Amino acid sequence: MRSSMPLSKSLLLLLLLGFLCSSSTEAHVEFGFYNDTCPHAEAIVLHEMTRIIAEDPTLAGSLLRMQFQDCFVRGCDASILLDSLNNNMAEKDAVPNKSLRGFDVIDRVKAKLEEACPGIVSCADIIAMAARDSVYLANGPYYPIQTGRRDGNKSEASDLLANLPPPTANITELKAFFLQKNLTVKDLVVLSGAHTIGFSHCSSFSQRLYNFSGKGDTDPSLDMDYAEKLKRKCKPYDHDDMRTLVKMDLKSPIRFDLGYYKLVSEGKGLFTSDEALLHDPETRAYVERQAMASSAEEFFKDFGSSMVSMGKIGALTHQKGEIRKKCAYVN
């Protein structure tokens, strides 16, 4: 029942001020954020990314991975791009990121945007746009993304362990990592589909080949022939070798398609975290549905939606953060 007692002018004013304050400080990103300040921003990024991926198609997977690594650690604030200082090891120099490529790509795109619109486009937004364009240029979907992120000023390698799911994670651990970031089980299985492009080093999965249970054995869930192929590529004692690259998708590592789900369903997922998707009813059902799908339409639509959700994690907006002039350094 509504009260018939009118609100006092002072109370109305207080409520209005409270609403305005909460609205103005609420962090959010939006579609078309640069329409007025840098209207050609996304076109500039796509143009440059088209040239970059044409020069080296293998960069697509790494740039997609870069956004994931950035957003899960400290939020989508480009902290992954900051260089280490004498008294601090930054995220990019942490062991899980040692193999990450594409930092020079972000710098190259940033330089183009600085020419067109100095001090307007954040490095965090460039990561998101470069990841989206990498998917599109690898024959995947082109999905609209929200922008308006600002750049953080802190990056610590020590933040990775508690925030980044390792390739050895089981399904319980994976679901916990995603829940921690307000992402769903569906987001987990959809975003795992990013492994349809890209390459890995032996260190990320060698335990499955040579010491799965601590007894010098091979993971029995791995397809036997696939395991033997991996063993020929990765020797028992070269797990720290950063030169050997292995396709995450056996047949089409530079094409964004349904190949990943087909491989996982056949016991040919490269990581423990890939095989783990078969140990939950919801994720298993999605894997099997995509493995049998005649079209990638559902996956492509879901992937764009999950990437937009991931792109909101810990985003700095309004007056929080800054727009870096150089992506590797705070202003």
Automatic annotation (TrEMBL):
UniProt: heme b binding residues: 195
Compartments reported by the entry: Secreted
Binding residues annotated for substrate, in chain numbering: 165
InterPro entries: Haem_peroxidase, Haem_peroxidase_sf, Peroxidase_pln, Peroxidases_heam-ligand_BS, Secretory_peroxidase
UniProt entry tagged with the keyword Heme: yes
Enzyme class: oxidoreductase
Free-text remark on how the cofactor is bound: Binds 1 heme b (iron(II)-protoporphyrin IX) group per subunit. Binds 2 calcium ions per subunit.
Protein name in UniProt: Peroxidase
This protein's UniProt keywords: Calcium, Disulfide bond, Glycoprotein, Heme, Hydrogen peroxide, Iron, Metal-binding, Oxidoreductase, Peroxidase, Secreted, Signal
Site feature Transition state stabilizer, where: 65
Family membership: Belongs to the peroxidase family. Ascorbate peroxidase subfamily.
Protein residues bound to Ca(2+) 2: 196, 249, 257
Domain Plant heme peroxidase family profile: from-to ranges: 28-331
Keyword DNA-binding included in the entry's annotation: no
Organism: Ensete ventricosum (Abyssinian banana)
One GO term (biological process): hydrogen peroxide catabolic process
Gene Ontology CC terms: extracellular region
Residues that, per the record, bind Ca(2+) 1: 70, 73, 75, 77, 79, 91
EC number of this enzyme: 1.11.1.7
Cofactors: heme b; Ca(2+)
